[in-house]
């Protein structure tokens, strides 16, 4: 198996929503296709993926650095010598040739899109869903019954009202999602607290509602929110402070007895090692949300999960950020603790294809070969244009 071409395109997210830090009105996502020399049904077999949601597209890094490196590489350096098929880890190493250590930012998302497209390609070559290929490669059995899922929403809208938020929470629960997550940090504490209390009332219990500040808070606000939120018994308190301020994270875990969630903005195993050493995260309750699409792909993400386990965490404490099909397959394949869903936002990437099964609070992928991105409404159209 050889790479004959790598294509990329920047696809805009739909909608005008914001969290406490970022407006997504002008965000785009890098959609990548890795084309192989294997021909199926008269067309080259092609793997497709993207760099997750929440960070900007990485077209410049892909076009100027990573794609040329891979196309110029000796093809034998990119394949598993035993199977003759592309090796995602070798492809990742080729994409990162001549890159210095450290600085794990946008390049991590660029590389992740290419590496994940290789997993899609391998699964299609095997004629099986990506979660099966992922599980086999990591010596695991897929979680065929499905994995826990929650609906992420509650974003700040141009017109924000409690009635609309309440209706949104109820709609997610009525659709079968057992829990929801809403945003905080974009309003004064008193106003945000009213939003959280309204969501809890609509959900029926604090344990069915998580809140996410997207790293907005300084020490004073993080601790003030912790004190105000503690009586509500929330599912978790997410990304209160800068993701690399491990000392402040440790202070927060000492002050807040409930679960915290963090890690979605850590893009390397070294970042995760530092969080585990210095961040005060607690294996008995806290959740880690690293996202393969933002952190060099599945190769690096699996190393992060291994570090978690070495630090005493169960792998079910890993609940990746980014509610989309790629992470659903990773969670099912690696036996992680659950996944996020974006049923109402971040289209065409957010959420799952209509044939994914949601029942009893669990979700499982459909059995399309690969990640099944082509079956996702809207996203399938973008893929068709890219690979035509």
Task: Give a concise summary.
Helix 1 crosses helix 3. With 388 residues, the chain is of the alpha/beta class.
User: What is the global morphology?
Assistant: globular
Low-confidence stretches: none
Structural classification? alpha/beta
Distance linking N and C termini? 20 Å
Q: DSSP strand (E) fraction?
A: 15-25%
Give the number of DSSP strands. 12
**Helical segment count:** 12
Mean pLDDT reading: 96
Helix content: 25-40%
Helix and strand element order? EEEHHHHEHEHEHEHEHEHHEEEH
Radius of gyration: 20 Å
Main sheet record: 9 strands, mixed
Task: Tell me about this structure.
It is a single chain. Strand 4 (147-152), helix 5 (162-174) and strand 5 form a beta-alpha-beta unit. This protein is 37% helix and 16% strand. Helix 3 (106-126) packs across helix 4 (130-137), helix 4 packs parallel to helix 11 and helix 9 packs parallel to helix 10. The radius of gyration is 20 Å and the shape is globular. The mean pLDDT is 96. The longest helix is centred in the N-terminal third of the chain and has 21 residues, at 106-126. It starts with a strand and ends with a helix. It is built from twelve helices and twelve strands. With 388 residues, the protein is of the alpha/beta class. The chain has helices spanning 59-72, 88-95, 106-126, 130-137, 162-174, 189-203, 219-229, 246-255, 269-278, 298-310, 325-334, 379-387; strands spanning 3-12, 28-40, 43-50, 147-152, 180-183, 209-212, 237-238, 260-262, 287-288, 339-341, 357-359, 362-364. The strands form two sheets. Strands 4, 5, 6, 7, 8, 9, 10, 11 and 12 form a nine-stranded mixed β-sheet that branches. A three-stranded antiparallel β-sheet has the order 1-2-3.
